[in-house]
Design goal:
It is built from nine helices and seven strands, in the order ααββαββαββααβααα. The chain is α+β, with helices and mostly antiparallel strands.
Length: 177
């Protein structure tokens, strides 16, 4: 994909995208050719080891502008972050946890009792004990995806920063070509 198209897709300036690509190239997770930017084999390897995955929420949000994100093993961080109220100013992000087999909102609401349709949809994502499910609504699907990824990465950073890239770094820094 060209830098210009990537810039347009992300809603960022070309300078910001150029900086991001430069950083990703340094990490060995992206490379460029005349035809554009692509993810390297190492980048694919690294991506597969980050414990977060987008989840479809199409039937939950008829507008098509919502995004779900499953974050494995981050319930402790989500609970700790909620005490600091990082999402209080952003009502577009709702945090759900799997606790003792039940899906609850970060505020403690038992979703199965209050919203059984939502619960079944979250369970379909593959959530298990200790996982977090983020439900994000924004003005566009892309904005929802970016917010979901940002929130998930912050949770992972807070919950187990030493584990996020340990498996990746065992392979090396990716610069071997």
């Amino acid at each position: 994909m060209s830098r210009k198209k990537l810039s347009s897709e992300l809603g960022l300036g070309e300078g910001s995208v150029r900086s991001m690509i430069s950083e990703m190239k340094e990490w060995g997770i992206a490379a460029t050719k005349q035809t554009g930017v692509y993810v390297t084999g190492f980048g694919k390897y690294a991506y597969d080891r980050i414990p977060m995955r987008y989840a479809d929420v199409g039937s939950i949000c008829g507008s098509g502008k919502g995004q779900g994100m499953l974050v494995t093993g981050a319930a402790g961080a989500a609970e700790g972050m909620q005490k600091k109220k990082p999402y209080e100013s952003d009502p577009s992000i709702t945090v759900f946890l799997m606790r003792n087999g039940e899906i609850v909102s970060s505020g403690g609401t038992d979703i199965g009792k209050e919203y059984p349709g939502l619960e079944s949809h979250i369970r379909a994502s593959g959530i298990s004990e200790g996982d977090v499910f983020l439900l994000v609504f924004s003005e566009s699907l892309l904005q929802s995806r970016l917010k979901a990824a940002s929130a998930a990465l912050e949770m992972l950073r807070c919950s187990k920063p030493e584990n996020i890239f340990n498996n990746v770094s065992a392979m090396g820094d990716g610069r071997r070509g």
